[in-house]
Amino acid sequence: MEDRTGPVSPITFRLDPSSGVPTYLQLVQEVERALQLGYLRQGDQLPRVKDVVGTLSINPNTVLKAYRHLEQKGLIGGRPGVGTFVIAEPKTVGLDELHVLERRLVTDWLPDAASAGLDDDGMAAVFMTALRTFRTRSERRAERSAQGRKATRPKGVA
Amino acid sequence: MNAFEASGLGKRYGSTWALRECTLAVPRDHVVALVGPNGAGKTTLLHSIVGLCQPATGQVTVLHGIPAGSPEALERVAFVAQNAPLHQHLTVAAMIELSCALNEGFDRSMAERRLRSLKIPFRRRVGRLSGGQQAQLALSLALGRRPDLLVLDEPLAPLDPLARHEFMSQVMEEVAERGLSIVFSSHVVSELKEVADYLVVLSEGRVQLSGEIDRLLAAHSSWSGSAAKVEAIQAVVPVVQVERADRYARLLVRAPAGEAPPGWDANPVTIEDLVLAYLRSPDIQVVTSPLALAGADPTKWPS
Q1: CB of B302 within 8 A of CB of B284?
Q2: Residue B228 φ/ψ, nearest 5 degrees
Q3: Residues A43, A82: contact at Cβ < 8 Å?
Q4: What residue ranges define each of the domains in chain B, with the CATH number in brackets?
Q5: A113: closest CA of chain B, how far (Å)
Q6: Burial B254-267, CB ≥16 within 10 A → b, else e
């Protein structure tokens, strides 16, 4: 049996009250960041709800909401009576691949944007808008294909 | 199951009504913040819940129908009054003895463990403890009774920021472990937003607003746009607060951000925005049944 009095998790939470980000979302983001940076790995335990509320002085439901959110994302899972554990690590992009993607921006898109007269903030704004458009489009595509599957299912069954 | 329920509750001191027609039902297992300006009737409402004051009209029940102040209620409800009154000349150890003697089933080991972890010296007299330590002692003695409902009157007011944090941490840990219902009053909204999940706004002796905080925030939003269109919006949607400049107006409305008219900028509201807007318009009262709040029909709210 493990020691249930000491800290069980490799991470502890910290809140930024001035960030304006809802508290549960701050907890979600901290776990995701810890996973990306490798502070949290598959099989690691997350801080117990009681420990989080004791150190941060927040409502237990806020912690539960954050953990539910991470569970829905498939990153963590609860073992009743034991605790909450990391069950999957988020997909990360390899360094080589990152370099290639960055090169393409530096040699291609950024010079075009600069010669069009955009400053740094302008480029960032264009990039964020494009990202949003891209996300909306892929969500719609996913919806359409889900509907398509539903529509064709009877045929497949028959 | 309700933590407490008041119907038609009224209490008068001389010719002044401290509470008037106060009707309210708060479900169990919430951390309830009771908010309102000084003199709004917060303490009177809390005293009615714990059975310390006899209402002039109406009634209060706790923990699903038990009359407030009845022997069964007294057994299951714990109360920490303003400024945590304790016997100043007794030692901490003597206070624990006293609590054991007065309360059957007092969880002595839990209270002692709690006080030890807070490094509160058992042999010191209560009067020589710091304000924060006295508050923690009062809390530990109240929790030692293992109540199903814990009522705290302005527990944070006399404490410095560190003591406030430690005090609420203790309360939250108990909620996480045992799942009891908590009601506490405060007039500092920024301090309760991380701990409370249920809000009751009291104003001039009446309940102005009550409900789960997440739902209340989702049901309100802040709209800004042309001042010329304010009346047209007011005709359709309940507007809690209007801030108007020459051409531009900002409204706090009881409608989700997604329902804003075209050309208007809609933003979510914070708990501070919400409380301030309601307190500035004491005439606006919202139906206090938690069920009525769930699927509110905007056309039914008073304009």
Answers
A1: yes
A2: -70, -20
A3: no
A4: 2-213 (3.40.50.300), 220-283+292-300 (3.30.70)
A5: 30
A6: bbebeebeeebebe
- Per-residue model confidence as pLDDT tens digits over B225-261: 999 999 999 888 999 999 998 889 999 999 998 888 8
Scored b (16 or more CB within 10 A) or e, B53-76 reads: bebeebebbbbeebebbeeebbbe
Chain B contact set for A23 (CB, 8 A): 194
Given an 8 Å threshold on Cβ–Cβ distance, is B197 in contact with A56?
A: no
Chain B residues within 8 A of A26 when measuring between CB atoms = none
Residue type, B101: A
Domain A23-86 has CATH 1.10.10.10: yes
Chain A hits for B173, Cβ within 8 Å: 50, 53-54
Nearest CA in chain B to A55: B169
A13, pLDDT greater than 80 = yes
CB contact under 8 A, B197 and A49: no
> Do residues B19 and B205 make contact, with C-beta atoms less than 8 angstroms apart?
yes
Give the C-alpha separation, B185 to B169, whole Å.
Answer: 17
Cβ-Cβ contacts under 8 Å, B170 against chain A? 54
Residue A54 is nearest to which of B31, B172, B195, comparing CB atoms? B172
- Give the start-to-end residue ranges of the domains of chain A: 23-86, 95-157
- Which residues, including other chains, have CB under 8 Å from residue B210's CB and lie 6 or more apart? B24, B26, B198, B199, B200, B201, B286, B288, B290, B293
Residue B302 is predicted with a pLDDT of 38
Q: Which two tokens stand for residue A58?
A: 């927040």
Closest CA to B49 of B32, B36, B39, B38: B32
Q: Which stretches of chain A sit within 8 Å of chain B by CB?
A: 23, 49-50, 53-62
Summarised one tens digit per residue, pLDDT across range A97-121 is: 878 888 999 999 999 999 999 999 9
Q: How many CB atoms lie within 10 A of CB B8?
A: 12
C-beta atoms of A60 and B172 within 8 A: yes
Measured from the Cβ of residue B217, the count of other Cβ atoms closer than 10 Å reads: 19
Which CA distances in Å does B295 have to A22, A113, B224? Answer: 24, 49, 25
Give the separation between CA B276 and CA B88, rounded to whole angstroms.
Answer: 38
> Partners of B267 in the beta sheet?
B222
